[in-house]
């Protein structure tokens, strides 16, 4: 027969749980298990080592580190070099990329990959596909347009459900690129699953604005990029990125 805990026993159990709360992993760190599995940090939480602005040697001045996160703070005007897209120094082919982001209301950004850096190209999006970042309700027109909502493969493939949190909250992105098999996850939910470089991919690109850039989505290795060139949102426009980690496959 079940017997309820005595008042004293219950107090001991409660005190034990109160004294040992679950410990969240510290941001911008790797667990021993992650290190053993081959994960590496792309952002150390302290400075912008390992990153530069597109077609520049160093990060633009609108990019900084704020409370353990890469932060962009920009206006609608100014020198584009100051808020040019941030690009990883290293290039990657097959990888699992995870990161967290948040933004001020109505902002717009994205995470690009397979970005090719050359004087031949003036912008990251001429070569690199993008996992879109947009506010849940007020990024105009993106929040109201399929293929341009948060988590979409921008202008190419849209998720059935927009699984993004309101502005000011952290969101999790994961991009798995494995020999042309591309998967996007937003806040733990798979939102895109497709393949690059086959006939279906080429036909898909041919019906979008990316058709004007013949090298878009063709590279099998390239830089990771955090977009800073969109001027949407309430001023000052701010974006934050943290816990940027990658495992090569």
Automatic annotation (TrEMBL):
Family matches, as Pfam families: 3keto-disac_hyd (PF06439)
Keywords tagged on the record: Signal
Record's protein name: DUF1080 domain-containing protein
InterPro entries (alphabetical): AL/BT2_dom
Coiled-coil boundaries: none
N-terminal signal peptide: 1-24
Residue intervals of the 3-keto-alpha-glucoside-1,2-lyase/3-keto-2-hydroxy-glucal hydratase domain: 38-247
Domain of life (superkingdom): Bacteria
